[in-house]
């Protein structure tokens, strides 16, 4: 008689999250099930439910981890320079690089059942936090503009950065003989979006 898989591990929640993050990175979130996750970690099919009540809760934890990591990278980049314009530039570059390194994770964070038709409140908090960081950087780089103009420039900057990263993820934009590598192209897009944001 085959032995049963263990229900408990020392840090099962952490193991489940790491396995889910790895699955999303390799395959995207759509094919991930609780049973598949249990098989990946080597526990019984019911064990993941002790930590995540359902698949949505698991995906939400993965997306939240992604946001926390991205915001941490953004804070480090902002803290590394005292130049307000450089800070705004680095916020754009951090997101483009993060999206390039984690395309399936960014899909989960921004374009999944966690955000459509209604965004999960936890992810909304993360997105608002990121927007506040960006808006603050725009205001610091352009101290003479009013609040409405700062808000408009923040949205325009974010739209350019996110739109570019999204098109790269979806294969709409590719490197070619005419276009440079995605990394160099990303830097160029960030620079042009930055000039528009600061009115240069």
From TrEMBL:
Pfam families: TetR_C_33, TetR_N
Top-level taxon in the UniProt lineage: Bacteria
Annotated keywords: DNA-binding, Transcription, Transcription regulation
Residues annotated as transmembrane: none
HTH tetR-type domain location: 10-70
SUPFAM superfamilies xrefs: Homeodomain-like (SSF46689), Tetracyclin repressor-like, C-terminal domain (SSF48498)
DNA-binding region(s) from the entry: 33-52
UniProt keyword annotation of Transcription present: yes
GO molecular function term, any single one: transcription cis-regulatory region binding
Listed InterPro entries: Homeodomain-like_sf, HTH-type_TetR-like_transc_reg, HTH_TetR, MT1864/Rv1816-like_C, Tet_transcr_reg_TetR-rel_C_sf
UniProt protein name: TetR family transcriptional regulator
Native source species: Alteraurantiacibacter buctensis
